[in-house]
Amino acid sequence: MTTAPTTTSTTPAGAATPVVLSKSAESALPTVAAVPSRIDGPRPTTGVPFARLIHVELRKMLDTRAGRWLLIGIGAVIAVALTIMFFNEGGQHAFGEYLQATTMPMALILPVVGILAVTSEWSQRTGLVTFGLEPRRARVGWAKTVAALLVGVAAFATSLVLAGIAHQGAVTFRGITPDWTMDGLVLLGAGGYVLLGIAQGLGFGMLLKNTPAAIVLFYILPTAWSILGSMVSWLRDAAVWLDMNQTMQPLFEGSLTGEQWAHLGTSVAVWVILPLTVGMWRLTRSEVK
Questions:
Q1: Is residue 229 part of a domain?
Q2: Coiled-coil intervals in this record (predicted)?
Q3: Residue 54: pLDDT above 90?
Q4: 4: which residues sit within 8 A by CB, 6+ positions away?
Q5: Are 256 and 242 a contacting pair, CB within 8 Å?
């Protein structure tokens, strides 16, 4: 009886049996590109320039559908106000009155642009891109602040030009007596009204990071405080220090005492600097999803 030869396997127990592919099967497999160990080219030695961050934040504020429609709305309100003043009372209004008609819509609506510049990072989920390209969030926050103030300066300069054109137009076409006189404090109050408004909106946006909540509270809280401060007797003393509508009024009248400057500084610290400070702190620590 012939015994069959025994074959000893060299593959360890439990190990996978190697599969041998034919040449045609090997050629059908997808080829994997080799990953280079180092990408050629110069390495960046600095971060994103701060000027570029400001430019990007300006684009976010102005070069969007919401930003454009807000600017269109401001322009329409100003055009209506100047047209009414041009024909009302024969157009006999001083330059300061025309300036008030151009700055008020900007001071009331422009803060929404500052709010959207911050809340869009969370509502439209652009924060992953923004903070991925620039992980230092404090620099992004400062870029938003500088960009918002630049928008405010440009808006106030535009309001000066429009008020001047309207007043000169009334002088030329309506025959009114020109009145270009304006106190320096009044001019400071008009510019501060625009700049502080947009800075306050930016602070509320950083603090809440939610567009509807930031817009609603931005308009409701100061208004409610002004109403309570004027109606409730035991809040009147506090309102003198904390109501920006009251503390900025002497600016528009062209005279401020030392105590009134202290009132103005306190109200600005509470309604502008405090939201910006706490909002900047939250901006650097909030989770981005």
A1: yes
A2: none
A3: yes
A4: none
A5: no
